[in-house]
Write a structure and sequence with these properties.
single chain, 199 residues, Four Helix Bundle (Hemerythrin (Met), subunit A), mainly alpha
């Protein structure tokens, strides 16, 4: 299914010149994984420079997250293996983001709560993604667990993490994310439980 959000459209525009070249979606997924892990390593430092570099790398990683899928779809290069690689890379990087900022924010007003909150949010996000994947598989074709609005997808919020890191606002974001992600995980689990079992 072709993405319709603004970020999908931008990624589609950017990857169009590479269709028909040696560039493959898995190349972009690997870059997304590497840049995401590098960003998380910077965030874990908890320094001003770490937040600056982490934000820049995270922005690149978030864009590559869109670009690999668009190249696969538009270039007719979609494979089961590529989908699995992309899915697990995204889950790892996005969960690692919250764990790493928890480490990096341990000297803020969150104090000794920062690391547990980061781990809690990471685990809740992993569970939420797993539940969402199952929900979509057991629902009618092209059903999405969470739909966007006005040209934005829910996971477009990840782009905001970069400017929030640059502004020094990740501390309240982590506290809010721990509550919101855990709540969303529970809601998604309840929705999944209410679906009829497949024959």
């Amino acid at each position: 299914m072709i993405g319709t959000s603004w970020t999908h459209r931008l990624a589609r525009l950017m990857i169009t010149p590479f269709i028909g070249t040696a560039l493959r979606p898995n190349h972009l997924t690997t870059l997304r994984l590497a840049s995401g892990i590098a960003a998380c390593a910077c965030f874990a430092l908890g320094t001003g420079a770490g937040m600056a570099w982490g934000g820049a790398l995270w922005l690149a990683s978030a864009f590559l997250d869109r670009a690999d899928g668009e190249l696969a779809r538009v270039g007719n290069m979609m494979t089961r293996g590529g989908h699995i690689y992309d899915y697990y890379s995204d889950n790892l990087v996005n969960a690692l983001f919250f764990a790493s900022i928890g480490i990096g924010l341990r000297h803020t007003w969150l104090g000794h709560w920062a690391i547990p909150l980061g781990i809690l949010t990471a685990l809740a996000l992993l569970a939420c993604n797993a539940f969402s994947e199952q929900l979509e598989q057991r629902s009618p074709s092209n059903t999405r667990a969470y739909s966007g609005r006005w040209g934005f997808d829910p996971d477009d919020a990840l782009y905001l993490m970069s400017p929030l890191a640059w502004l020094g606002w990740l501390t309240p974001i982590l506290a809010a994310a721990a509550v919101c992600t855990t709540t969303l995980m529970i809601i998604t689990w309840v929705r999944l439980r209410r679906l009829p079992l497949q024959a």
